[in-house]
Design a protein that fits this description.
27 strands, 403 residues, mainly beta, disordered N terminus, Pdz3 Domain, single chain, 6-stranded antiparallel sheet, 6-stranded antiparallel barrel
Length: 403
């Protein structure tokens, strides 16, 4: 559960990253399952109806402080919602993920937008973060496994790709720099992860140039997004990655987060401006050599590890061992991802990995660096100290969860 930093706002007790996460078990150290009611920071947000029960709804809640232009007055421009939905919906897709068990397990859902007729898709990084598999459902074209082209985690943008598709409708982006306070907008997306026709909600641009600072429940892992559009159009879990559309049917933003003053009706949403989305998506697709961009999937062993020096030496069968029986330093396996390359090779919690090939791995940094130098599918040799003695294991590395 992600909590809020209210230091700069007297209200808005929560800010939610709105991908819809449904877990088969609680996240380690966090209780994230919502069954109709969510209570935090002294506020109560109550969701009713069968949609929550059917979805077993969960939210990844984020804290935020905001700065930027003050809200203005509503525009007199009218907006034809049915016409906009008919135009935009074919290019709005559902994104569904299976989350890595070591990241909490379960499933998550969000929204994406078709960038090209050959099925390049843009969405939020947090929609796919931690995913083992990503499946997209394209209107009229069924469901497909998507591959990760790349991400910019600092901007919360990711690009996916489905192979073999052609002739798809695409989203039309507008010029977000021309957006004004009071402009009418609609938010379109896979609300509550229920699938089917996208949900459409109406509002106005209530501010531009917003900066939000998000952190986890401990106040750490902060990230800052700049220049966001603010809207009062209701944004629900599952809307992340979907378009915020203007009166002409052009996407002027990508929904990424929402804050509430404590009731379902009093909402404030935030969207990444379309000009930013287009520029970063183009850089990802071009594999631009820029800091912060991550391309494709990394190699993956499927374990959680800790330096042996950090573990108390209680021996096998009680806690992970401090080192090998002869004192050789290594990294202690504290958990193994079911079905991972490590699990298939027989690695178990408590084992100590001493080396990869000819490279010693006395620390977590050393082992991580060795794995990062490999590609998914590479065959590596691990020297492992187990309860039965020292073993040499040959492991084909897999694909890491999306970072």
């Amino acid at each position: 559960m992600k909590l809020i930093d209210c230091a700069r706002r007297a209200i808005a007790p929560w800010l939610g990253r709105h991908c819809e996460r449904r877990r088969t078990r609680p996240e380690r150290g966090r209780l994230v399952t919502l069954l109709g009611v969510c209570a935090l920071s002294g506020a109560m947000v109550v969701f009713t109806g069968t949609a929550i029960a059917q979805a077993a709804a969960t939210m990844n809640l984020r804290g935020a402080t905001t700065t930027g232009q003050a809200p203005g007055t509503a525009s007199t421009t009218t907006i034809d919602i049915p016409a906009i939905a008919a135009t935009v919906d074919p290019a709005v897709i559902d994104v569904n993920t299976v989350l890595d068990p070591l990241e909490g397990g379960g499933t998550a859902a969000g929204t994406g937008m078709l960038l090209s007729p050959s099925a390049e898709i843009v969405t939020n990084n947090h929609v796919v973060q931690g995913a083992d598999t990503v499946t997209v459902t394209i209107p009229g074209h069924g469901s497909h496994t998507a591959i990760l082209v790349g991400t910019d985690p600092t901007a919360d943008i990711a690009v996916l790709k489905v192979a073999g598709l052609r002739g798809l409708p695409t989203i039309t982006f507008g010029n977000s720099s021309a957006v004004a306070v009071g402009d009418p907008v609609v938010a379109i997306g896979n609300a509550l992860g229920l699938g089917g026709n996208p949900t459409v909600t109406q509002g106005i641009i209530s501010a531009t140039g917003r900066t939000i600072t998000a952190s986890d429940e401990t106040g750490s892992n902060e990230e800052v997004l700049h220049g966001l559009l603010q809207t009062d159009a209701p944004i629900a879990p599952g809307n992340s990655g979907g378009p915020l559309v203007d009166a002409s049917g052009q996407a002027i933003g990508m929904d990424t987060a929402a804050a509430s003053a404590g009731t379902v009706g009093a909402s404030v949403g935030f969207a990444i401006p379309s000009n930013t989305v287009r520029a970063i998506a183009d850089e990802i697709e071009a594999h631009a050599d820029l800091p912060g961009l991550v391309y494709g999937r990394a190699a993956f062993l499927g374990i959680e590890i800790v330096d042996s020096s950090e573990i108390g030496g209680f021996g096998y069968g009680l806690t992970p061992v401090a080192a090998t029986p002869n004192g050789t330093p290594g990294v202690v396996v504290t958990a193994v991802d079911p079905g991972s390359p490590a699990a298939n090779a027989g690695i178990e919690s408590g084992d100590v990995i001493i080396s990869m090939g000819t490279q010693a791995t006395p620390t977590t940094a050393a082992l991580s660096k060795a794995i990062q130098a490999k590609k998914p599918g590479d065959l590596v040799t691990l020297t492992v100290s187990t309860q039965q003695g020292t073993e040499t294991l040959h492991v084909h590395l897999g694909q890491a969860p999306i970072a």
